[in-house]
Amino acid sequence: MTTRSHDPADAGNTESSPETAVVPAENVTAEVPAPSAPEATDHDRLSPQAVPDSAAGRLGSAWVGLVLGALVTILLLIFIAQNTTSTDVQYLGLHFSLPLGVLILFAAIAGALIMALFAGFRILQLRMRARKARKLSARSH
Question: One Pfam family of this protein, by short name (predicted)?
Answer without folding.
Answer: LapA_dom
